Amino acid sequence: MKRIEYIGSLIGLVIAAIVIWQSFLIPMGSIGKPGPGFMPFWVAVILALLSGFSWIETRTRKLPAVQVQSRVGERQWSNVIWTAASLLAYGFLIEILGFILSTIFLLLFLFRFMGRQKWWVVFTGSFLVTLISHAIFKLALKVQLPAGIFKI
Predict the structure, then answer these.
(1) Residue 69: exposure state from Cβ atoms within 10 A (0-12, 13-18, ≥19)
(2) What pLDDT is stored for residue 115 in this prediction?
(3) Is the terminal CB of the chain with fewer CB neighbours within 10 Å at N or C?
(4) Under 8 Å CB-to-CB from 143, ≥6 apart: which residues?
(5) pLDDT confidence of residue 61
(6) 3-state SS class at 29
């Protein structure tokens, strides 16, 4: 497990370095008036810091005498595939059905079949999360969300 974490932190450092380098090629702007390179630069700096801390932690950590088996390997890959497929379908259906309906259907599927929740939790959670996210994006942030064929 230590080797995977070590490689992952190095990949994060390389990606951060590339993004920092590329963000210098476009106008940076200032804090008061940020340019298109401002946000990618600072996100990459944060990524570099986190990856660096992870790399240092991985290099200095001592492995326990007895390895504890991870339960991650016991999970079924079908859950990952179904979740990825449902997100892909959501991406296609959001323009057709609109934000509200497609989000409700996505959450119904994820809560019931991936999360194995009880039906009352599935329906309550799906509707509440959809309504709250709709209120945040549409009403508070004034983001134009897809209305779909039903114009909801």
Answers:
(1) exposed
(2) 87
(3) N
(4) 137
(5) 79
(6) strand
CA atoms within 13 A on the CB side of 124: 5
Burial class of residue 4, CB neighbours in 10 A (0-12, 13-18, 19+): exposed
Q: What is the pTM of this model?
A: 0.57
SS3 content of the chain, % helix, strand, coil (to 5): 70, 0, 30
Q: Nearest 5°: phi and psi at 34?
A: -70, 145
SS3 state at 24: coil
Residue 104, token pair as written in the block: 């409700």
- Cross-strand bridge partners of residue 29: 34
Place of tokens 């991650």: 72
Question: In which element (H, E) is residue 78 found?
Answer: helix 77-97
